[in-house]
Write a structure and sequence with these properties.
heterodimer, A: alpha+beta, Aldehyde Ferredoxin Oxidoreductase,  A, domain 1, Aldehyde Ferredoxin Oxidoreductase Protein, subunit A, domain 2, 3 domains, six-stranded mixed β-sheet, 41% helix, B: alpha+beta, Alpha-Beta Plaits, two-stranded antiparallel sheet, 8 strands, 25% helix, elongated, disordered N terminus
Amino acid sequence: MTIKSGYFKKHLHVDLSQGKAQRLDLEDEFLEKYIGGRGFGAKLVWDNLNKHDFNINPLGPENLMVIASGPLTGVYLPSSGKCSFVAISPATKMYGDSSAGGSFGVELRQTGIDVLSIDGKASKLSVLFIDDEETSIIPMPELKGKTCLETEGAILEHLGTHAVHVAAIGIAGENLVSFACINTDWSRNAGRTGIGAIMGSKNLKAIVVRGHKDIPIHDISSQVKEADKAYAYMANHKYFKLWQEQGLMNVIEYANENGILPSYNFRDSVYAKHEQINGTEMVDHYKIGDSACFSCSMSCGNICLVKNGKYTGTVTEGPEYESCAMLGSNLGIDNFAAILSANKLCDELGLDTISTGNLIGAVIEGYEQGILTLSDIDDQKISWGDEDAILDLISKIAHRDGIGGILADGSLKVIERWPEMEKLLLHVKGLEQSAYDSRAGISMGLAYATSDIGAHHTRAWTIAKEMEEGQNWSDEEKVDTVIYHQTLRPLFDMFGVCRLPWIELGLNERHYENFYRYVTGNDATLEELLDRSRDIYDLTRLINVGMGVSRKDDTLPYKVYARPALTGPNAGKVIDRDAFQKLLSLYYQKRGWSEDGIPSDDLKNKF
Amino acid sequence: MINSIKVMNLCMSKKLTVIPEQCSGCKICELVCSINHFGVNNPKKAAIRVIITYPHPVMRMPVVCGHCKVPTCVEVCPVDALSRKDGIVQLDKEICISCYKCIGACPFGAIYAHEDCDYPIHCDMCGGDPECIKKCPKGALRLIPEAALGESKRLNNVLSYTQMKEIEFYEKGEKKTIHYAEIGKEEL
């Protein structure tokens, strides 16, 4: 099998310390094996780790940051605007990645490269410009202290054009907050695992791209026909209009109904005032426009404006489900305008809303329970739903002010400072948990515990199946489902496309086998592509094992084992520790890893 | 023959109209335009482009040729490569010298250029059945008869009439609302 098209076969490497950029050729074997996106990222990060003997400080100049689109990025097919940001995470000290939508990845590709890698550190705060074949690193210290949106605006003004795409960090990234994100195209964030702090550590405030090249496609007429079929299927789906109207905000109702909506720092899994923060509330009173990523017909983004009250004039893209749950119900905020403002503040400062919501929730509960004293929280009382105090704390995190300075280093550092907080913080390996309660679904617990970046649902999202099937499915089926998700879902990140058309509207995954074939001319079947994705999962595990991870780390937050939700359909449920360990052993067995969760030496030679 | 006459009629009487409030900024219009006209997947070769401004003001608007009745691009063309026929501004590529004067003359910036192309990129209405309209998932691009232009704006204006009142009532047990304009009560 060969790669006939679908790639520029170029890798742009930028060394910020030397101020040099180099275009390197990519071999067909590399393209075929690693596909793109996180696949490229994992391989380049792995090579870099080996070069440094696994002795890498995430915030040191030696930590390689990889930004990669995939062969399907920018291609005419549903939702092809994705791009992965990969590095060793400052939050978890292991493999980290996050993908962003919008059009940044498409534009990056159109400069004629498949992957961009950056190491070193600029002597002054700088911006990396990639304008087709030209690459330049320009010191722009005047951007210091600017928010993500201000940075993008200032760059556009400086260039005198809107026809570029920008990925920027805010104050949180500059201040090396371990869950700082990268904001692309105004409000599409690479949110998780703190890749924004990696940019900050390299003195890189923004990356600006402009490209004009044709995106290479092997058989464009077949590709167009296949894409038309996919678009038509989606447009006829019964929930298509709901997605256009509410986007991910429709999940608030679903999560509340099924008892998986975090509220009051996961003390509960339903929220009494859910109707005040759900998609209908948003559409009726706040939404002023739709926003879609590149080539996406679902347009899940909502542009919202607060039209009256104290937050009047706040305009933001979002919130989406995770942000609304973590900054809303999880903090006891029932005022949608306040959630919108908190979301906007996080976007401006460049903070991940999931981690921020988790940490603030734990602070409120910690103070309520007396684990944190008033002086610990800088003599500023905070309680559930206290909008002013919560907004203030968000700012303090980004500025590393007072307790914000400790929260800025993430859950592990908070626990180091106040060991009792372990009972209140929901994280796995230092990454705070997504807004899906796992206590009612052990397979979702397994998904969080074995996710290669920490407690995030991106790798496997089995909670819906748990809700549908109840407990009536075998351990074997649970493990198989988690592994299948962890194999298929990352494949979308490797292709450089969004998985929502598949997971939410049921777009058949076979379309992607065809897309890949028509674009690259490579005849791989879906099964073969899944094998390659599975290999990448082994590779990210090897990275993590190299950074010290083993079975002891594949565990769940204290609350998941010991503190059941109080009300709702899943009241009283927790995950049993022994049952979980049994499931974990079966998982390792099926992955071909040792009882301690270590892949065999043979596997290492594969990469 | 009959079909082609129908298509011509369509072109003459209908305008490609942009409804920016509906646009999500997905750029599918750009993609299908480049595929249809150049056979390549490249939004930078489209005759329609979505311009996004954010956050002040929030705007997503596709910019495409309006086939003006008094086209400034035609006026400035030094070799008469541009002309307006059957309601469509057309470019004769045989004559065009690619001086790009038309790009500067268009008040909307709706003519484009790309280094791979020997002539300006300009909307040709796909022969009367624009691909971008068919593929727009939001209905933000429409073909509207000239006489109907402005209709929705007129209706919206009427509906937002300041003295519009609302009454709730029940019909066969079902709650309904009726709107009516209270006139003559206030002095204008």
